[in-house]
Write a structure and sequence with these properties.
Radius of gyration: 20 Å
Order of helices and strands: HHHHHHHHHHHHHHHHHHHHH
Oligomer: single chain
Largest sheet: none
CATH topology: Amino acid/polyamine transporter I
CATH architecture: Up-down Bundle
CATH class: Mainly Alpha
Structural class: mainly alpha
CATH superfamily: Amino acid/polyamine transporter I
Strand content: under 5%
Number of helices: 21
């Protein structure tokens, strides 16, 4: 569709065409690790970390909008663009941080799925086998658009957390009291603050969305709708995080304040006295499964895209597996590796919080490359204005420094 013809159609139809990468990556942002982090925050600190969820909305949008702008205007994924602008050495440095966070994320997603399976008596080996098989078939038999639609379907399950929060009957007075008294000098509080920052802005999100808009073949005329896709997604993901935190604060945090969460079953069982055993277990299982599945798709695709971009191998879902064997092999290897590691019995809660804190510590590298690309790679007409460039620098630098400071202070 040409520039002129696309501009003439109603904006809501433009949104339907472009809609996808932003919503998908934002649903994946609220992954198993993020759910655990939000639940842990509410359980241990009540509503004292709630404000942070809303502060992070514009920061998340500004970050991801840069990836959209870069992908659409250059036609290159994040790793490929770094290689093109700064050389293969720096591309490998950037992709190395991606692989580290992808490994941690995959373990978190699969442990979340295994934990949900355990709620219903499904052995870990069986839930892992079904998950790897199902996600492999999705990629091997579909195009980007079909995979995107399936991912969105899984993401919709996360909306049940709004109902969970409502059924928990949170106290407005208690919420305001907690927001007025935040223990910013407590290292344990700072550790979870860093975890929440790392749970929102993850390296693989930046790689995924930039590669996704390229794989979807979005062009500059689609930029406005793509920004709305990203903005809506940023609001939804943080509202889901807030809902999980509120639900945990109003239930676990009220009944057993400060209690550490040990596993998925612990979280689910803690909610059931307030929501009913069957309803509580089912709702939590739906939300966690949807979050873990969509994140597993996104993370494994991101690893395959990132490696493909800097090695030069074909790296698109539009290619048949015979045309891009390394791309699909990387995708499946990431799934299998995550499943095998989960079978070792890793503690989900401790691992998930540690992974998102690690994300926070890696933010200077990730956001630094993103900002430099925004300054150097954007073509005329799409470059950052001087004022906006300063605002973006302040926001990204502050976020990176805050994440590192809070993470180091809380370790």
């Amino acid at each position: 569709m040409s520039n002129a013809s696309f501009a003439k159609i109603p904006f809501w139809k433009q949104m339907l065409f472009v809609f996808g990468p932003g919503i998908v990556v934002m649903f994946a942002d609220t992954d198993a690790g993020s759910i655990i982090t939000a639940a842990q925050s509410g359980a241990q600190w009540g509503y004292r970390l709630l404000l942070l969820q809303f502060i992070l909305i514009p920061i998340l949008f500004i970050t991801q909008e840069l990836t959209v702008r870069l992908g659409i205007t250059t036609g290159m994924g994040h790793g490929e663009l770094i290689k093109h602008r700064f050389g293969k050495f720096w591309a490998w440095i950037s992709v190395s941080t991606l692989i580290i966070t992808c490994i941690g994320a995959m373990i978190s997603e699969f442990t979340g799925i295994a934990g949900v399976g355990s709620l219903f008596g499904v052995p870990i080996w069986l839930s892992m086998s079904i998950t790897v098989l199902f996600l492999s078939v999705i990629a091997l038999t579909g195009s980007y658009r079909s995979v995107e639609r399936i991912a969105l379907l899984f993401g919709l399950f996360e909306l049940v957390f709004f109902y969970v929060a409502w059924r928990a009957h949170p106290s407005g007075q208690e919420m305001m009291d907690h927001l007025m008294h935040m223990p910013i000098h407590d290292p344990h509080y700072l550790y979870l603050a860093a975890a929440n920052i790392g749970a929102v802005i993850m390296p693989w999100m930046i790689f995924y969305q930039q590669s996704a808009v390229v794989d979807k073949k979005l062009k500059p005329e689609h930029l406005k709708a793509a920004r709305w896709d990203t903005a809506i997604g940023a609001m939804i993901t943080q509202l889901i995080m807030a809902a999980i935190l509120v639900a945990a604060a109003a239930t676990i945090g009220k009944k057993n304040p400060g209690v550490p969460l040990e596993n998925v079953q612990h979280i689910a069982s803690a909610l059931t006295p307030f929501l009913g055993k069957n309803v509580g277990t089912l709702l939590f299982a739906l939300g966690m499964t949807g979050a873990a599945f969509i994140a597993a798709i996104v993370v494994s695709l991101t690893a395959a895209w990132g490696l493909g971009e800097i090695t030069g191998f074909k790296h698109s879902l539009e290619h048949h597996p015979k045309e891009a064997p390394w791309f699909y092999a990387t995708y499946i290897i990431a799934l299998v590796a995550g499943a095998i590691l989960v079978a070792s019995g890793i503690n989900l809660v401790n691992l998930s919080v540690a992974v998102v804190v690690m994300n926070a510590l890696l933010l200077p590298i990730v956001l630094g490359f993103l900002y430099l690309l925004a300054l150097k790679a954007l073509p005329v007409g799409y470059q950052l204005s001087r004022r906006y460039a300063i605002i973006v620098f302040i926001i990204l630098a502050s976020t990176a420094l805050l994440g590192v400071w809070a993470g180091i202070s809380g370790i």
